[in-house]
Here is the input.
Amino acid sequence: MPNLTNEREKTIEAMLFASGESLHISRIAEALECDIPLTRVILDNIANTYEKENAGIQLREVDDSYRLCTNPAYYPAIQKLLNKKPRKALSQSMLEILAIIAYKQPVTRGVIESIRGVNCDHGVNRLMEWGLVVEMGRLDAPGRPILLGTSEEFLLFYGLRSIEDLQAVIFQQE
Here is the structure.
Protein backbone atom coordinates (compact mmCIF):
# COMPACT_ATOMS: atom_id res chain seq x y z
CA MET A 1 0.00 0.00 0.00
CA PRO A 2 1.33 3.48 -0.81
CA ASN A 3 2.98 5.48 1.93
CA LEU A 4 0.57 8.35 2.56
CA THR A 5 2.22 10.53 5.18
CA ASN A 6 -0.19 13.44 5.29
CA GLU A 7 -3.15 13.00 7.65
CA ARG A 8 -5.45 14.70 5.13
CA GLU A 9 -4.32 12.26 2.42
CA LYS A 10 -5.18 9.35 4.69
CA THR A 11 -8.54 10.91 5.50
CA ILE A 12 -9.39 11.38 1.81
CA GLU A 13 -8.31 7.82 1.05
CA ALA A 14 -10.61 6.54 3.82
CA MET A 15 -13.53 8.68 2.58
CA LEU A 16 -13.15 7.47 -1.01
CA PHE A 17 -12.83 3.86 0.07
CA ALA A 18 -15.85 4.06 2.37
CA SER A 19 -18.05 5.80 -0.21
CA GLY A 20 -17.37 3.24 -2.94
CA GLU A 21 -18.33 5.82 -5.55
CA SER A 22 -17.13 9.09 -6.98
CA LEU A 23 -17.06 12.08 -4.65
CA HIS A 24 -17.14 15.65 -5.94
CA ILE A 25 -14.16 17.73 -4.89
CA SER A 26 -16.44 20.23 -3.11
CA ARG A 27 -17.80 17.46 -0.84
CA ILE A 28 -14.29 16.27 -0.04
CA ALA A 29 -13.11 19.83 0.70
CA GLU A 30 -16.13 20.45 2.92
CA ALA A 31 -15.51 17.25 4.90
CA LEU A 32 -11.82 18.17 5.31
CA GLU A 33 -12.72 21.75 6.21
CA CYS A 34 -10.27 23.17 3.69
CA ASP A 35 -10.53 25.00 0.38
CA ILE A 36 -10.88 23.37 -3.03
CA PRO A 37 -7.41 24.36 -4.39
CA LEU A 38 -5.68 22.75 -1.39
CA THR A 39 -7.94 19.71 -1.68
CA ARG A 40 -6.97 19.36 -5.35
CA VAL A 41 -3.26 19.47 -4.42
CA ILE A 42 -3.80 16.74 -1.83
CA LEU A 43 -5.75 14.60 -4.33
CA ASP A 44 -2.98 15.06 -6.93
CA ASN A 45 -0.41 13.95 -4.34
CA ILE A 46 -2.41 10.80 -3.63
CA ALA A 47 -2.78 10.02 -7.35
CA ASN A 48 0.95 10.57 -7.93
CA THR A 49 1.86 8.33 -4.98
CA TYR A 50 -0.28 5.49 -6.33
CA GLU A 51 1.15 5.92 -9.82
CA LYS A 52 4.77 6.15 -8.66
CA GLU A 53 4.45 2.98 -6.60
CA ASN A 54 2.39 1.14 -9.26
CA ALA A 55 -0.17 0.47 -6.53
CA GLY A 56 -3.07 -1.93 -6.93
CA ILE A 57 -5.45 1.01 -6.91
CA GLN A 58 -5.56 4.33 -8.71
CA LEU A 59 -7.20 7.64 -7.93
CA ARG A 60 -9.17 8.72 -10.99
CA GLU A 61 -10.77 12.10 -11.65
CA VAL A 62 -13.91 12.55 -13.74
CA ASP A 63 -15.61 15.95 -13.97
CA ASP A 64 -14.17 17.23 -10.67
CA SER A 65 -15.19 14.01 -8.91
CA TYR A 66 -12.72 11.46 -7.60
CA ARG A 67 -12.93 7.69 -7.24
CA LEU A 68 -10.67 4.84 -6.23
CA CYS A 69 -10.34 2.27 -9.04
CA THR A 70 -8.33 -0.88 -9.46
CA ASN A 71 -5.15 -0.66 -11.49
CA PRO A 72 -5.86 -2.27 -14.90
CA ALA A 73 -2.55 -4.11 -14.66
CA TYR A 74 -4.11 -6.33 -11.99
CA TYR A 75 -7.40 -6.97 -13.74
CA PRO A 76 -6.55 -10.59 -14.73
CA ALA A 77 -6.04 -11.57 -11.07
CA ILE A 78 -9.26 -9.82 -10.04
CA GLN A 79 -11.06 -11.57 -12.88
CA LYS A 80 -9.88 -14.96 -11.58
CA LEU A 81 -10.79 -14.12 -8.00
CA LEU A 82 -14.31 -13.01 -8.88
CA ASN A 83 -14.82 -15.63 -11.61
CA LYS A 84 -15.73 -12.89 -14.06
CA LYS A 85 -15.75 -13.49 -17.76
CA PRO A 86 -13.88 -10.87 -19.71
CA ARG A 87 -16.10 -8.24 -21.29
CA LYS A 88 -16.34 -8.87 -24.98
CA ALA A 89 -14.81 -6.20 -27.14
CA LEU A 90 -17.15 -3.65 -28.61
CA SER A 91 -18.22 -4.51 -32.13
CA GLN A 92 -17.53 -2.06 -34.94
CA SER A 93 -21.20 -0.99 -34.99
CA MET A 94 -21.22 -0.40 -31.21
CA LEU A 95 -18.02 1.64 -31.48
CA GLU A 96 -19.65 3.76 -34.20
CA ILE A 97 -22.76 4.29 -32.08
CA LEU A 98 -20.66 5.14 -29.03
CA ALA A 99 -18.58 7.63 -31.05
CA ILE A 100 -21.72 9.35 -32.35
CA ILE A 101 -23.18 9.57 -28.85
CA ALA A 102 -19.90 10.87 -27.40
CA TYR A 103 -19.55 13.64 -30.00
CA LYS A 104 -23.19 14.64 -30.45
CA GLN A 105 -24.54 14.20 -26.91
CA PRO A 106 -27.22 14.63 -25.93
CA VAL A 107 -28.53 12.80 -28.99
CA THR A 108 -31.60 10.74 -29.91
CA ARG A 109 -31.67 7.29 -31.47
CA GLY A 110 -33.22 8.88 -34.54
CA VAL A 111 -30.18 11.10 -35.07
CA ILE A 112 -27.84 8.14 -34.58
CA GLU A 113 -29.81 6.10 -37.12
CA SER A 114 -29.84 8.96 -39.63
CA ILE A 115 -26.04 9.23 -39.39
CA ARG A 116 -25.42 5.46 -39.61
CA GLY A 117 -28.28 4.67 -41.99
CA VAL A 118 -29.33 1.56 -40.03
CA ASN A 119 -31.28 0.68 -36.90
CA CYS A 120 -29.26 1.14 -33.70
CA ASP A 121 -31.59 -0.31 -31.04
CA HIS A 122 -29.49 -3.38 -30.25
CA GLY A 123 -26.21 -1.46 -30.05
CA VAL A 124 -27.65 1.30 -27.86
CA ASN A 125 -29.28 -1.26 -25.55
CA ARG A 126 -25.97 -3.14 -25.13
CA LEU A 127 -24.06 0.06 -24.45
CA MET A 128 -26.64 0.97 -21.82
CA GLU A 129 -26.38 -2.53 -20.26
CA TRP A 130 -22.62 -2.09 -20.00
CA GLY A 131 -23.11 1.33 -18.40
CA LEU A 132 -21.27 3.27 -21.10
CA VAL A 133 -24.40 5.15 -22.25
CA VAL A 134 -27.17 6.68 -20.13
CA GLU A 135 -30.47 8.48 -20.63
CA MET A 136 -30.03 12.22 -20.21
CA GLY A 137 -33.67 13.27 -20.40
CA ARG A 138 -36.16 13.77 -23.20
CA LEU A 139 -36.20 16.06 -26.22
CA ASP A 140 -38.99 18.64 -26.19
CA ALA A 141 -40.41 17.47 -29.52
CA PRO A 142 -43.28 15.26 -30.70
CA GLY A 143 -42.99 11.81 -29.13
CA ARG A 144 -40.51 13.18 -26.57
CA PRO A 145 -37.62 10.95 -27.70
CA ILE A 146 -35.00 9.90 -25.16
CA LEU A 147 -31.73 11.83 -25.20
CA LEU A 148 -28.61 9.68 -24.83
CA GLY A 149 -25.17 10.59 -23.54
CA THR A 150 -22.04 8.96 -22.21
CA SER A 151 -21.72 7.99 -18.57
CA GLU A 152 -19.07 8.39 -15.90
CA GLU A 153 -18.26 4.72 -16.58
CA PHE A 154 -17.47 5.67 -20.21
CA LEU A 155 -15.01 8.31 -19.04
CA LEU A 156 -13.38 5.90 -16.59
CA PHE A 157 -13.25 3.10 -19.19
CA TYR A 158 -11.45 5.32 -21.69
CA GLY A 159 -9.28 7.11 -19.10
CA LEU A 160 -10.81 10.55 -19.64
CA ARG A 161 -11.34 13.22 -16.99
CA SER A 162 -14.17 14.87 -18.93
CA ILE A 163 -15.83 14.61 -22.31
CA GLU A 164 -13.74 17.62 -23.41
CA ASP A 165 -10.65 15.39 -23.09
CA LEU A 166 -12.03 13.33 -25.97
CA GLN A 167 -11.55 16.29 -28.30
CA ALA A 168 -7.96 16.72 -27.11
CA VAL A 169 -7.17 13.05 -27.75
CA ILE A 170 -8.52 13.18 -31.31
CA PHE A 171 -6.74 16.40 -32.23
CA GLN A 172 -3.51 15.08 -30.71
CA GLN A 173 -3.61 12.10 -33.10
CA GLU A 174 -4.07 14.23 -36.22
